[in-house]
Write a structure and sequence with these properties.
It contains two helices and 34 strands. The protein has 437 residues and is mainly beta. The protein folds into two domains: 42 residues; 393 residues, YVTN repeat-like/Quinoprotein amine dehydrogenase (Methylamine Dehydrogenase, Chain H), CATH 2.130.10.10. The strands form eight sheets. It has a five-stranded mixed β-sheet, with no helix packed on it. Strands 15-16-17-18-22 form a five-stranded mixed β-sheet, with no helix packed on it. The longest helix is centred in the N-terminal third of the chain and has 40 residues. The N and C termini lie far apart (61 Å). The relative contact order is 0.13.
């Protein structure tokens, strides 16, 4: 080959290589930018448990739908057989939820494809020989699963708890030897924290909390409730709330509401750290925490809320309660706390806004309907779904301002989930993926 031609050929190879590197670099940067904008624009991509990734019914997602109907902004809807009040959880391209027959004799875990809504797994986990007749009060599948990479944990109260492999649906372990008589049905969801799964068993006859090793299902510790209920009526001893873990002054605390009291434990050992007492029973709503204060909803017969400093020792009822609000607050739906304001919708459809520092009522407004599903705060809005399938969307402001009302064909007992730009809404009949088109 002539020298000039060889030189040109070598130069061409160098230019081609440089151009290839520039293209690769541009593609990498573009990928980073797309990923960055996706994160900014979409927010939370997974909804791993009851009340979401921060356990407070809040999502960082934006671009969520404001309006929908059976014919508007529905990506897919999938019928869910039998019945359940558990909320959906989302991980990657999977959506999991539980259901059970109306008589409680069979328990199921379902997995749907997030993109299409197609059922991937429909797993009958076990048969229940003699379930208690509680369908008029509750479902037999009201505990929301917890999910992480590769595993999902499903819970049906004393009827059973199981860990499933998400890729295959294989049961990795199960526990059916933790008894209590729920009487009005199980309602608490499992809390996954580190390597431990915390579960409430607050029944008519037995009341305790158990910590399970998530890898094996073996018991790490178990503590009976040492609560003076003031009665031998088991209906007053029940509770349905889900625990949370928080950190106070460098100390991790497992906050565990039950009937007549909220008990706080060392998550590692189960040793009680402190407690606060109240007169209400059958606690269902989950606590909130912000700015070093714990907000506890105390249950039935009428919803109340108290603000407590969570840094005490022993019984702090007389020393650590900051305020106690008693009017038009929920017994079942969990509230949301946004920018120093607590927004609630009670069981009878009265919305309220409280000042989180003082407990003072900022406003009250009747939106109508009946509620047990938790509120959701996302994309600068609050979503509240009622028993007849209506979702009221309102602004988190110091005066009530309705933004939209959306109607589906059946009602809500399950709480909403968020992933990317989609709402996942479970009604009594179907699971919907709702997204702005």
């Amino acid at each position: 080959m002539p020298l000039a031609l060889s030189f040109c050929s070598a130069r061409l190879r160098r230019l081609t290589a440089a151009r290839t590197l520039r293209i690769a670099f541009v593609n990498i940067v573009a990928g980073w930018l797309v990923a960055g904008f996706a994160t900014v624009g979409w927010g939370d991509e997974n909804w791993p448990c009851f009340h979401g990734p921060r356990h407070n019914s809040q999502s960082d997602s934006t671009g969520l739908p404001l309006t929908w109907s059976e014919t508007e902004n529905i990506v897919w809807k999938t019928p869910i057989h039998d019945s359940g009040w558990s909320s959906p959880v989302v991980w990657g391209n999977q959506v999991w939820l539980t259901t059970a027959t109306d008589d409680g004799k069979q328990s199921f875990a379902l997995c749907l494809d997030r993109t299409t809504g197609k059922v991937i797994f429909d797993l009958k986990l076990w048969d229940n020989a003699d379930p208690e007749n509680t369908r008029q009060y509750n479902s037999f599948a009201s505990g929301t699963p917890s999910i992480e990479e590769g595993r999902v944990y499903v819970h049906f109260g004393s009827y059973g708890t199981a860990c499933l492999e998400t890729a295959t649906g294989k049961v990795l372990w199960s526990r059916r030897d933790l008894p209590c008589r729920h009487y009005r049905g199980p309602g608490s969801s499992p809390l996954l924290d580190g390597d431990t799964l915390y579960i409430h068993y607050d029944g008519f006859d037995k009341q305790y909390i158990v910590a399970l090793d998530k890898r094996t299902g073996e018991t790490v510790w178990k503590k009976d409730r040492a609560v003076d209920y003031g009665t031998d009526n088991g209906d007053v001893m029940k509770a349905f709330s889900t625990p949370i873990v928080l950190e106070v002054d460098g100390r991790r605390e497992l906050v565990s509401p039950t009937s007549k009291a909220c008990l706080v434990f060392d998550p590692k050992t189960g040793d009680e750290l402190w407690r606060v007492r109240f007169s209400n029973f059958s606690t269902a709503a989950r606590p909130l925490v912000a700015d070093g204060v714990l907000f506890i909803n105390t249950g039935f017969p009428r919803g109340e809320m108290m603000a407590v400093r969570p840094n005490g020792s022993g019984d702090v009822t007389e020393t650590h309660i900051l305020w106690h609000a008693k009017k038009n607050l929920p017994s079942m739906p969990t509230s949301v706390l946004v920018d120093g304001l607590i927004f609630s919708v009670n069981d009878e459809g009265v919305a309220t806004c409280l000042d989180a520092k003082t407990g003072a009522y900022v406003w009250e407004h009747r939106i109508g309907g009946n509620f047990s599903a938790s509120l959701l705060y996302a994309d600068g809005r609050i979503y509240a779904g009622d028993y007849k399938g209506k979702t009221t969307v309102f602004a988190p402001e110091r005066a009530f301002r309705s933004l939209a009302e959306n109607q589906l064909d059946a009602g809500f007992r399950a709480s909403p989930a968020v992933a990317g730009k989609s709402l996942f809404l479970r009604t009594e009949k179907q699971l919907y993926r709702v997204e702005q088109k």
